[in-house]
């Protein structure tokens, strides 16, 4: 029966669901803290690789300058935001023999409490997909997003 099915019914499953590095937990926590700080634009941008692809709702940024512009647009109608990250589901989709521990995919979900510039208070559920990679340069080794996409539920 399975052999006769065609189409996209057979998803890829992770080889294991453990984080390759516990520092990813700190990276995620610090990222969402920076996300909620209106004056932390450059810090927020530093969480992405220079060629990262970011989609938040209907807004898109590819590369450092577009991500910077996206970040600035995030605050045009929002006075304050506070994320709650409820769960993160890590996975590695590489063959276990090829895993070097320098890349991981995450599905995340939570909610964000917003206060808009016109005084409205909103609670918006969201889900996200991220690919993080350990970037290594002459001085540091740190996790960065190569891809980050967030879907928000409109009430």
UniProtKB/TrEMBL annotation:
InterPro entries: NTF2-like_dom_sf (IPR032710). This is SnoaL-like domain-containing protein. It comes from Hapsidospora chrysogenum (strain ATCC 11550 / CBS 779.69 / DSM 880 / IAM 14645 / JCM 23072 / IMI 49137) (Acremonium chrysogenum).
